Model the fold of this input.
Amino acid sequence: MQRLPLGGACAGQAASKDQGGHKMKSRINTSLVISVILSVALTAPETALALDTVYDQDTVNGHTGFLSAWRVTGELDKPVIVVKGYDTVNAGHPIDDLDGDLGTLAQPLTDSGYDIVVFDYVNGEVDLKENADNLAEFIRYLDGTLLDNGVIDGDADGHPDYELAIIGGSMGGIVARTMFVQENESMGVDIFVTIDSPHHGVQLSPSVGWATGFIDSIAGNQMLYGDDAYDEHYDWLRSVERSPAFRELVIDPMHTAAIALSDGESGWRLDAGDELIHTEYHDVSSYIEKGEIRSDYVPYHSAVNMDDTRVDEIGDGPDYRDLEYNDTHTSYFDLKIPNPRDLHGAPDYAVQQAIGFVIENSEQPEPAAHGWLTPLYNLLLQ
Done:
């Protein structure tokens, strides 16, 4: 596997940029480095120098590979991997996310000493197992990079020891969940957060049910509730995840949270209109809209991976029913975070909730002020 030392470029696969988007040469004049250090230390003592690095692998183990972009403050030693969701177009690159809203929203992570990594797929439509393999391969690359650079130490078996968090948006949460099962280990992940991920599949309303015939991607069918591909993939996930040994060794040691763009913690009213054109979970679901068509996308019980998805009817009237979940408990996640119903995606507040959970559960919280410049900065002030 090709390894890229941070700050260098590698055979057209990777390059480093500053936050202004300018490519940086892999070999830098020493006097220039000293000037940059002095300039940053004297003019911005509260902020460590952050560099953006792109690293892509077109193929991995015989299948399509992955794309990634890293924002590293000082040394890469505390990565948060943001695993992206389902994308049939792949028009952009993860570096665009770092240069956009995500980079701004993730500033609290940078301030807390984390390095931001955005992980995407060369092809988001392939088998979920293939992109789970891509994620595992990428983490192994991170492990090797940190060990090779002497940033972290390995344990007695040679495995690296550093804090690693994953934030999975929509399908990204299922890719990570698939990785844990496929690798039969946590891959060193300490914190795992999902944002409106279809843990029980995507459930389309009858009004757009006809559109399922046009879903021709493997990943799309694997997440489509009721499809044969869904049954095969999710039955496999659950068969492994329900093992006491797997739970004890893989799931339980992680800090885990599921963020839903809906709220199923209290009852809801389903009127005749909703029942006619939407699924029975409509009022506690996030949904997508296109023109006059609205579709339930990830019901609350799917977004939080509830153990019991039964719905009880607690009252009714001439044109409505009052419903509530029998039990919203999830044994997979430590915390479930409900929200008012919203469009499926990654709204700013949900990303901020995920970031807050990561910071709150950090094993080694430390501000990034000065970062690796602190000793030099203190010396200059003497």
Notes: The first strand starts at residue 14 and ends at 18. Confidence is low (pLDDT under 50) at residues 1-47, 365-382. The chain has 13 helices and 16 strands. The chain has one domain: 52-369.
